[in-house]
Write a structure and sequence with these properties.
By secondary structure, the chain is an all-alpha fold. The chain has eleven helices and no strands.
Length: 219
């Protein structure tokens, strides 16, 4: 994204706004799900808000700007406040990626319905809005798929924990302490090649974007 700052400032602004929106929706959805399932912790910590400042993680945002893989400030919740701790924890974790996919799908439908409508296309403001929808769709898909990787502290780890039978779930949870080691290993290129996590999730991202943005190259 930073390479666009000098060559395409407007494009950089679009990507930056899309990033902020995607993270905000993602983290707010975690907080909303926790509140709905009986845990007030996110609300008490000021996370039940659409204010982006409450949800942006400096390192995660920087990583998204640099390599388009990153995260927001994790929403903390207390499983002891949940009626079904393992199941509800998985639902809370799933809420973030699902919200991103829903937003991307909504933007895709809006783009398809309006991009060929000539009276609107002639309007400069609306043309800019349509141009903004592409990075918004891409950023939401990338954030959703990345967070579904089953490695702590990503959402996928808690989702798998909630799906597994209780016996295997306890064994799975023992891997939590090694999560950051695995994640860092996967995020950095080995011997100058593509990062392992990129090889893992790029086919899924490509598949979804080919549906939501047909004939639009993945950047």
């Amino acid at each position: 994204m930073f390479d666009q700052l000098s060559s395409n400032p407007l494009g950089f602004i679009f990507w930056l706004i899309a990033l902020i929106i995607a993270i905000t929706i993602h983290e707010y959805s975690h907080a909303y799900a926790a509140e709905h399932l009986g845990d007030p912790t996110p609300r008490l910590m000021g996370r039940l808000t659409l204010n982006p400042l409450a949800h942006l993680d400096p390192l995660g945002t920087l990583m998204l700007l640099l390599i388009r893989f990153g995260w927001g400030k994790p929403v903390q919740f207390d499983p002891f406040n949940l009626r079904h701790p393992r199941r509800d924890s998985a639902i809370i974790s799933l809420a973030g990626p699902v919200s991103n996919i829903l937003l991307a799908t909504t933007c895709s439908l809006l783009l398809r319905l309006t991009m060929n409508y000539e009276p609107l296309a002639m309007n400069l403001f609306f043309s800019l809005f349509l141009a903004f929808l592409q990075p918004l769709i891409i950023m939401n898909v990338v954030l959703a798929v990345f967070n579904l990787v089953p490695i702590h502290p990503l959402d996928g780890f808690k989702i798998v924990e909630g799906i597994l039978p209780e016996e295997y779930s306890r064994q799975w949870k023992e891997l939590e302490g090694y999560g950051m080691i695995f994640l860092l290993f996967l995020m950095f290129p080995i011997f100058g090649s593509q990062a392992p996590i990129s090889r893992l999730i790029s086919p899924v991202i490509s598949f979804l974007l080919n549906i939501l943005l047909p004939r639009v190259p993945i950047i």
